[in-house]
Amino acid sequence: MSDEHDPDDVAETACRFTDTELAIYLFLLQGPASLPDCCAATGLEEGEVTRVLESLSQSKLVQPLPIQPPRWRAVAPNLAFLNFLSKLRAEYAKLSRQTTSLNNVLNELQSVMRSDVLGCHSAVGVEKLADEAETRTKLIELLLTAQHSVRAMHPTVAWGDVLDMDFSVDRALYDRGLDIRSIYPHTTRRQREGLNYFRRLRELGCQFRTTVSVPGRVILIDDRIAVLLLRSRHDGGVVAREPNIVGFFEQLFEDTWDRALPVSEYDYDKDVRRELELLVLIELSSGRSDEAIARRLDISTRTLRRYITGLYERFGVETRFQLGVAAARAGILPGAPDLE
User: Fold this and answer.
1) In whole angstroms, what is the distance from residue 305 CA to residue 297 CA?
2) Of the ranges 44-53, 293-302, 331-340, which is most confident?
3) Can you say how many angstroms the Cα of residue 237 is from the centroid of all Cα atoms in its chain?
4) Is 225 left (phi over 0), alpha (psi -120 to 50) or beta?
């Protein structure tokens, strides 16, 4: 894995304060204060202090008091940490259900593809595609029939000529007035190719978001066709027209889209880093090696170890075993996983 995916300036952990947030939070720890009090103590404009107070409130670090004139108070650090753990626990449960559901479907389809049941024939509503070349040709053919929308989930961004071809297809679809929405993993924000592709998509007017993990590539054409590209290039793909299968992937896309984060800046923000740290924690609990986890997350092992260091700091531990115990006690992970 290239260190192009690992710029040195993205080493912050998920909930680290900005200087302004820290100044206001420390001031409020001394006692409740009004907006003018915070402005006077920090020398900041009212609009900036208001924005910071809203951000801290969303992070459950400060609370507005139900009095007039309005005043704010800081949440004690230990309670704030418990609030953070509660949010992580909920995010873990959602991510686990989503990933398990999609993986089960992809595994079932892949098993069918490899069995002798289909052979060279197709089941009702399901068309087998033998290899990558046939799948790409069929996909372009089907995209030309799109009438109103194309929705796609991509576990990675392509490279070189394939990326240019993908952009040409997106441009042709957009020029026809189709609604185009795409979901990519958060790690795409750190890849040079991914960042450039995002900029080109934005110039077209396409919509795209990122989420912690995209287990497989799925393209939905209108509300009638789902094209699944299986994990190995040699496995080809599947075209599904059966309404129940298409409906499942439509719901999966919309649920993932609602939870995914818009790319307003071509960098990691706090929410992106927090979600990635959570995903790292889940992967560590599986017992996989650092190299295997880095491959699954499409990051370098050095970047992975930065996330692990950030988790050590957050939980106040020094080893992976202690991290597993701390996460289990906090209710984020079931049991006490062996992370050594």
Assistant:
1) 13
2) 44-53
3) 24
4) beta
Segment 244-294, tens digit of pLDDT: 888 888 988 998 898 888 876 545 555 566 677 777 887 887 778 888 888
Peptide bond into 69 cis (omega under 30): yes
Query: In the chain, where does DSSP find H-type helix?
Result: 19-29, 35-42, 46-58, 77-114, 132-143, 160-175, 192-204, 243-259, 270-285, 290-297, 301-315, 320-329
Q: How far apart are CA 281 and CA 320, in angstroms?
A: 10
* 3-state SS class at 109: helix
CB 184 within 8 A of CB 210: yes
pLDDT band at 8 (very low <50, low <70, confident <90, very high): very low
Q: What is the separation, in whole angstroms, between the first and last Cα of the chain?
A: 23
Give the H/E segment covering residue 181: strand 179-185
User: pLDDT tens digit string along 296-323?
Assistant: 777 778 888 888 888 887 777 888 777 8
In this structure, what DSSP letter does residue 145 have?
Answer: T
Q: Phi, psi (5° rounding) for residue 239?
A: -105, 120
Are residues 60 and 83 in contact, defined by beta-carbon separation less than 8 angstroms? Answer: yes
In the chain, the domains with their CATH numbers are 19-75 (1.10.10.10), 85-262 (3.30.870.10), 270-329 (1.10.10.10)
Q: What is the pLDDT, as a whole number, of residue 33? A: 92
